[in-house]
Design a protein that fits this description.
By secondary structure, the chain is α/β, with parallel strands linked by helices. 32% of the residues lie in helices and 17% in strands. It has 16 helices and 20 strands. The strands form five sheets. Strands 1, 2, 3, 4, 5, 6, 17 and 18 form an eight-stranded mixed β-sheet that branches. Strands 7-16-8-9-12 form a five-stranded parallel β-sheet, with helices on one face. Strands 13-14-15 form a three-stranded antiparallel β-sheet, with no helix packed on it.
Length: 533
């Protein structure tokens, strides 16, 4: 590495949207920075996730950078929900336009970051054995960047090919004429199953827990929609910052049970036809009132029954043991209708668990299935996975993984007590995965950049969250989550999909607009809750 053994103002870990914008922002402030990226290119999520049907679940116009008017004027999205190849081209365009790659070291994984209390600097070591020094470290490692890589007994015996949605071959896969088993029905499976079914001779889907999904109604963006967005873009971008999710879904202030049943039917149907997360805004209390939530769940169940022709299959596909919307709502194209195909079979592995992978396929408690290929769509170690896999050592030799043994603790999702000058972008304790990630990324990057400028102006060497502020923030995050229905689901929001991971609601559920105001107030009060040295 040409930059080996050099000193920087900032080391950035990750070259997804967060790492790229962080680098661009710091350069504009005259700071030196280097980015380490495990992949062979920029884009983060959109570099790694290349499975069939991979696409964004926020409308493309909103899921894009707003920091550069020139960038916005020169890029035009093709679809309401951009597919992975287009999103990756966008990331590449951003990197090339702002000449970011000259400060990014690809195919390099950060293994350790150690804070030296004598020099108040971080020593960052890569898997290539190189070490660099920096005053600050920004972890832009992504919220859904580390797959769980669930394995099954006997997986090494399988005579066909195993594919993981999170590590899909870059050259793609042709399943024509093959018998394919898909294990998992989370977002990546829901996006990929309809396309795999179109190719495969036979596809069997193994489902443990059904997910709620809504149609995208995807398609080209009409010229009048583009014209309106362009004319009012500044207004829309400003308004997005005050929304709960950092995107528009026309939220209603009406309470569910104050509306008549016929209004429920009409309103949910109207939003279903618009598609995407619009349905989340139907009523103000769907996420906090269990009786209100049951109305939404009943509507969703009826939709599944109306689409899936086999009543028994529809019943298996209908969630029954957690409230509607308490797992991340999936956005699909023809997911439920795919189960009407003659070449598609659904197996309920909650009723008949998988016992092992065999040389020829999959054996459950009740039957054995033969496959040429198996697709594992088994999810991610969300929000903390990437940080846990780096040996981060703060004051007194304390490891962050040890500090977080009973669950992550942060102040504002930005810093951790005992780890000076270390920032996390969209980390645990921030709205992150409950929001439009690009909106959250921009807010975090800009907050961190402003903080570093403020520190430089004061001639300060360190900043870190106080233990008192961290404890108060963790309590606030937990208190807000406890007032919602989210903890009732065994979701990756709760860390429940990773064996042994502490059960804790990971993001801040108070809404992006509220969170942004809190962060601004902290700054206005002289970085309240932070110790500066």
């Amino acid at each position: 590495m040409a930059q080996a053994n050099r000193s920087f103002d900032v080391v950035i870990v990750g070259a997804g949207f967060a790492g790229m914008y962080m680098l661009h922002k710091l350069r504009g402030q005259g700071m030196t920075a280097i980015v380490f990226e495990a992949g062979g290119g920029v884009g983060g999520t959109w570099f790694w996730n290349r499975y069939p049907g991979a696409r964004v679940d926020i409308r493309s116009l909103e899921y894009s950078f707003s920091f550069s008017e020139e960038l916005e004027n020169e890029w035009k999205w093709s679809e309401h929900y951009a597919p992975q190849p287009e999103l990756l081209r966008y990331a590449e365009h951003v990197a090339d336009r702002f000449d970011l790659k000259r400060d990014i070291v690809f195919n390099t994984r950060v293994e350790a970051a150690v804070f030296d209390e004598a020099s108040n600097r971080w020593s960052v070591t890569t898997d290539g054995g190189d070490t660099v020094s920096a005053q600050h470290v920004v972890m832009a490692t992504g919220s859904l960047s580390v797959p769980t890589n669930v394995d099954f007994a006997g997986i090494e015996d399988f005579g066909g090919t195993i594919y993981r949605t999170s590590q899909w071959p870059h050259e793609g896969v042709d399943f024509s004429g093959q018998r394919v088993g898909v294990i998992g029905t989370g977002s990546s499976a829901i996006q990929s199953i309809p396309l795999i079914a179109e190719q495969a001779a036979k596809m069997t889907v193994f489902q443990r827990t059904p997910n709620y999904s809504v149609p995208a109604h995807n398609g080209p963006i009409a010229e009048d929609v583009y014209a309106d967005w362009t004319a009012r873009r500044a207004e829309y971008r400003l308004a997005m910052k005050s929304t709960a999710g950092g995107f528009f879904n026309d939220p209603s202030e009406q309470l569910t049970l104050e509306a008549a049943p016929e209004h429920h039917a009409t309103e949910f149907e109207r939003r279903w036809q618009i598609g995407g997360f619009h349905i989340l805004g139907a009523y103000a209390d769907l996420g906090i009132d269990s009786e209100a939530n049951k109305v939404a769940a009943a509507f969703a169940a009826e939709k599944i029954r109306s689409i899936v022709k086999d009543p028994a299959v529809a019943d298996i596909l209908t969630p029954k043991d957690y409230p509607w919307g308490t797992k991340r709502l999936c956005v699909d194209s023809n997911y439920y209708a795919t189960f009407n195909r003659d070449n598609v079979e659904l197996v309920d592995i909650k009723a008949a668990p998988i016992e092992r992978i065999t040389a020829g396929g999959v054996k459950t408690r009740d039957a054995e299935y033969s496959f040429d290929a198996i697709v594992l769509a088994t999810g991610f170690d969300a929000m903390t996975g990437a940080l846990d896999r780096i040996a981060i050592t703060g004051r007194g030799g304390v490891r962050m993984k040890d500090r977080w043994a009973e669950g992550p603790r942060t102040y504002l999702g930005l810093m951790v007590s005992g780890f000076p000058n270390l920032f996390t972008v969209t980390g645990p304790g921030s709205p992150s995965v409950l929001t439009n990630m690009v909106t959250s990324i921009e807010q975090h990057v800009e907050w961190i950049a402003d903080c570093l400028l403020w520190l430089r102006g004061r001639g300060a060497a360190t900043i870190e969250a106080t233990l008192e502020a961290e404890n108060g923030w963790v309590d606030q995050v937990n208190e807000i989550a406890a007032g919602t229905l989210f903890p009732q689901a065994n979701s990756w929001y709760m860390g429940a999909n990773v064996p042994g991971k502490p059960r804790q609601f990971l993001p801040f559920a108070g809404g992006f607009g509220v969170y942004r105001e809190i962060c601004e107030e902290v700054v206005e009060r002289g970085y309240e809750g932070f110790a500066v040295g």
